[in-house]
Amino acid sequence: MYGLLLIHSSYVSKPTRRQDMEKSVEDEKVDSDYNSKDSREILNYDINTSSGELTVKVICLGDTSVGKSKLLERFLINSFKPQQVSTYALTLYRYTTEIDNESVVVDFWDTAGQERFHSLHPSYYHQAHACIMVFDATRKVTYKNLTRWHDELRSYRPSIPVVCAANKIDANSEITTRAFAFTEKNNIPLYYVSASDGTNVVKLFRDAITAAVNYKKNPTDWTDQLLAELEDTDCTSTPSLSSSQKGEILTQ
Ligand SMILES: Nc1nc2c(ncn2[C@@H]2O[C@H](COP(=O)(O)OP(=O)(O)O)[C@@H](O)[C@H]2O)c(=O)[nH]1
Ligand SMILES: [Mg+2]
């Protein structure tokens, strides 16, 4: 079961100044209020829902046109429409499933073109529990760019689990015989997939969800632990603010 939530693109547009980033945190609150009235609230992924369900946030990363949206479409509605027009907004797909007999609410975050600026807003990474990195089996440059995406991801989420998908293997099956230095070096599981014909898509997403759940239950990210301690001591410092500060440096 899944639902679709569109968030105004200003929520993830690239910040240039501190004020812009603080404003986007404010926007988040406004959007959250609006959506909760609409009973489609943006969740606080660090805690469970009010009814006790586990919540996880899974983000998709990779260059434009590698097939991120089509993979989500394939997993969630088991379909593929080659010419569908992208929406001009960040897309959040809310999906409810069971992992080890436990109900889990999964929010998949997908960009809607912001990745063409080669950087995403810190709020995209904020509170993420797992990341699906995608490259296009027919375009080598999209594989090369994974390193840059991985560096940006790690600057915000140093140790969340990552899985990698070589997509469009229907258009280049030869690639499935190859190994890749990026995934081997970083110890990232690699899946040869096709959003077009569905090969390995369910496995990719199920494994990503399971990894996200395991990570949420046993976070190894020292920043998570630090932030939890700060919250315990009622410190006003928030994850968003520290991410924003980082974002200012990284995005100039
Ligand atoms: N042949 C083939 N084309 C695909 C596949 N997945 C996506 N595409 C095409 O690649 C283009 C970009 O897909 P999209 O999901 O919008 O990429 P995104 O920008 O990463 O979200 C579209 O024209 C899709 O039809 C696939 O598995 N096989
Ligand atoms: Mg897309």
From TrEMBL:
InterPro entries: Small_GTP-bd, Small_GTPase. It comes from the Eukaryota. Keywords: Nucleotide-binding. GO terms for molecular function: GTP binding; GTPase activity. The keyword Nucleotide-binding applies. It holds the Pfam family Ras. Belongs to the small GTPase superfamily. Rab family. NCBIfam families: small_GTP. This is Rab-like protein 2A. It comes from Allacma fusca.
